[in-house]
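Protocol step 4 of 6: structure prediction from sequence.
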Amino acid sequence: MRLALLLSAVLCSRAFLLPDRLEAGEASPVTPAATAAPAAVETPPGLTKTLVYAVLAGQIAAQRGEHLAAFEHLSRAAQLARDEDLAEKAARSALASNQDEAVGRAVALWLEIAPDSLAAHQIAAFVRLQDEDLEGAMYHLRRLVNLTSDEGESGFVQLARLVHKLRPPGQRMELMEQLTAGEPDNADAWFARALVAAGSERPDEAVTAAQRATELRPDWIEPRLFLVQLLKDADRQAEARATLERFVAENPRDQGLQTLYAQFLVDDKELDRAREVFAGMLVESPREPDVLFALGILSLQLEDLASGRDYFTRLRETEERRDDAAYYLGRVEELDGKSEAAAAWYLKVRGEHAQDARIRLARLEAKGGDLDKARERLRLMRDQSRKDAVMLFMVEAELLTEMDRKPEALKVYDAALEAHPDDRELLYARGLHGAAMQRLDVLETDLGRLLELEPDHADALNALGYSLADMTDRYQEALALIQRALALKPDEGAILDSLGWVHYRLGDLELALDYLRQASAKIPDDPEVAAHLGEVLFALGRHDEAWDVWDKGLAKAPEHAYLLKVVGRHRVSQNGVQP
């Protein structure tokens, strides 16, 4: 029976509640009247007042944060009782005291009492490593390997976790190489070397060691997964995928490998094949929640609503991830045009998706003709979640804008900034909304204030510069703003588009064409870039090229208002005849 159980009968006894300052053997200063209370509990065999006092004093000192005193008392108790738990508590108090001498004594006592304690050897090794005593650490590390292996675990992998704490990284590999030098055919040793090499920023050595581990133990999956991840992290994507495909072929029933392979396929945009892999896994585990979830998400991405509905329904029936299932069933029904069914699912969602579900519900209500109900829902959400108030104000304003009620949306932005003055997201959003309303005063006020708060806000610089070029004749001012934005984001397609547009307005057509072609290469599907590029080509007399750009833009975005306006204007200018 452990000492803790032996003490349980006496720790509440007033006969042993001795004051902190009372040393063993001292006469108690407590008055006879105070001690004449209930009869003392019978002391279990082996316990003495000295031992109980040492335990209590150690516990009280630890509670007070007096770690060195706790160590002294608990060490004394451990010596008296020869108890492993007390020795461990003494060692941990010594560690908390940051006193090297105390730590050394505590660990030595612990190992004397429990020479096969894994935890004691771990701490002893850690202390030696901290003191850069590699020879001393080696003894404890080797004992750890032997003791852990005796328990059926991988002692070398445990070592890797401990050695990983060493500084500098080069010392980690040196130590691990010494520890594994006599184990050329031990898969655990090679995998441990791979772990340490990876943590020491030596990727080539990590790959070599992981490969050796997989060769030595072909049925061990963990080093296989690690090897593939190492290759992927080293940008050896093709090799990583080929290696993984080989492992999958060798271990076709392992779900860890199958899951990683499916993730590779998703990264490579091979969604159909990824879904086939997960479907194969579902044959083995028909109610596996994570597999059902993955299949549902992939089905949505593939616009296969029927399959998505089936997988998420089956997920909900497993009683796992019920909120995920409800949320995505709502998404399925919304995409399928079934607003009432979607709303019913959104109302059932709790947890991390709850807020987004309520926002989507508000959008459905607005599109269904009940805008007032939608706005009231968003107002209630703001009251319930103050930390998300800015985002919810912006959702309401965007909703009104979508319903072509821009003046009301502007009032929402006004109320939001009154409640959250100088909020940068709100200043940027209201500024852009002002531009959309041709309210140059709102645009300049808000983006000007934002740039006072954050002079290097590239998007604000670009938006203000583009709007000035598009809405005014202040072209040089616009050019300076856009050039500042480009210096901050040299490869940003939207900024290149703005620079091309301001040069068009300045009459620098060839320079404008160069920037707009760069923008089109960066964001080829952007209809506004297509509108601008066509404008410049048309102005250069290259009408066929201009119409080709516009036609391609309309094929991708047939309802884009700005592009339609530009194309319509040029059709009219040519008497309705398109070249």
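Step 5 (inspection) to follow. The chain has a mean pLDDT of 87.
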